[in-house]
Amino acid sequence: MSILSSEKTRPSAASQTSEIVRDPLLAQVRRYVSRQLCSGAWKPGERITIRALAQELGISTTPVRELLLQLVSIGCLELKQNTSFSVPSMSLDAYLETRRLRIMLEGEAALVAAERATPEEIDRLAAIHARLEIAERDQDIPGCLEYNRAFHLTLVEMSHMATLNNFVETLWLRSGPILNALFPRVQPWQRGVYRHLDVLNGLRARDAERTKRAIQSDIIEGGPLIEAVLRSQMTTARSAEP
User: What is the domain range of residue 71?
Assistant: First the structure.
């Protein structure tokens, strides 16, 4: 059984309302690859080949090649050879720019979501956060990355603004790998702070500004730790130069 066909028995943390097998094949591939990048399952520098990915998914190489080339065009992958791609590394400047855009766009999405989200959508978001807490308790790093990604992107989806959702997803495609690479060194929950709960409280109260501030605080508070590591790496790289 291929990964794609097995997806219908494994619910997505970000969306449990549709089955992946109902989508066109390219959409199936995009969903899988997007999840790999956004959740940080693929790390910076990781090599990806069309043939290997097609075999992993149990499909032909054509939709895989098309999707990977699309991701190259928006800067989420780098083309190394005709059939080989890699996950790009993220510089400090690129990270700061991406974080700034996430603060702006996810904040706006949260504001609108507080006005538009249904009670069922809010309950689904709460269930995702509950899974995140379990993953953290169990020190399940892949689970932590996946459910954190799912929380943020599901919140954006709750704004019901498709264009904004696409912009934010692109930012996550770019930043997800670096979150995985640095995860063991940046674990904000060690401070016992769950801004996601503030987001949920804001949504339930239909308080748009409160919800916006909560998700922006969540993004901002984890930033300095990542920024410090990237600055240290940059300094080390410079000192190693001849």
Answer: 3-38+47-86
Q: Identify whether the C-beta of residue 169 lies closer than 8 Å to the C-beta of residue 26.
A: no
Nearest by Cα to 82 from 50, 45, 46: 50
Element (H, E) at 167: helix 162-182
Q: How far is CA 25 from CA 52, 67, 68, in A?
A: 17, 10, 14
Taking a C-beta distance cutoff of 8 angstroms, is the pair 210, 111 a contact? no
In terms of domains, do 113 and 223 share one? Answer: yes
Which residue stretches of 138-161 are H helix? 141-157
For residue range 178-226, list pLDDT tens digits in order. 776 676 555 554 445 579 999 999 999 999 999 999 999 999 987 787 8
* pTM for the model: 0.79
Separation of alpha carbons 163 and 13, rounded Å: 21
CATH code of 63's domain: 1.10.10.10
Judgement on whether residues 109 and 74 belong to the same structural domain of the protein: no
DSSP 17: S
Distance, in Å, from the CA atom of 50 to the CA atom of 71, rounded to the nearest integer, reads 13
Select from 58, 86, 114 the last residue of a domain: 86
CA dihedral 131, 11, 66, 90 (to 10 degrees): 0
